[in-house]
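The records we work with from here on pair a chain with its fold. Each token is a code from a learned vocabulary of local backbone shapes. A record is reproduced here so that you can trace the correspondence yourselves:

_____
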Amino acid sequence: MDNIKNTLLILARASIAEAVGLPYTLDLEALLEENPGLEEQGASFVTLTTSGERLRGCIGSIVAHQKLYEDIIHNAKSAAMDDPRFPSLTQKEFDGITVEVSILSEPEPLEYDSIEELKSKIRVGIDGVVLKYGVYQATFLPQVWDQLPTFELFFSHLCQKAGMEANCLVRIPEILTYQVEEYKED
């Protein structure tokens, strides 16, 4: 477990260093040889936080569409440079960020007919959620339950993140759930 954790975090941090123009030695060929699972299709999110656990960037893939190592590299660089909520990460900030890599399971549709039924099926603190309604879509990783610990808070913020009204669940949007394996720098 520690080996895969270190491998994923080193891969993400090296990608961020490259994006901000800092030297960081990484032998990708050797890394892939030691961890052949990285060459399988996978979906990941890379989250950057500053001291005090303040979000500094978070970008990811909900569905596997490329090799896991390629997904991590792409999302790490994007979290650092292309998250529209933040300016690009600077070289000065590099040492002050904490990197977290989440590997996602395949999202599964969750059937429900009412908000009460959805509430009974969602596993608080365990499920990541994708909300879809027409052109609107958003996701929250399971880690977001830490900041929004109730069903009502979590879903009102998720609805708003999707660009809809806070009570969008009355529309019975499509809901998919997934779980993550989370790896965070100490």
In short: The chain has six helices and eight strands.
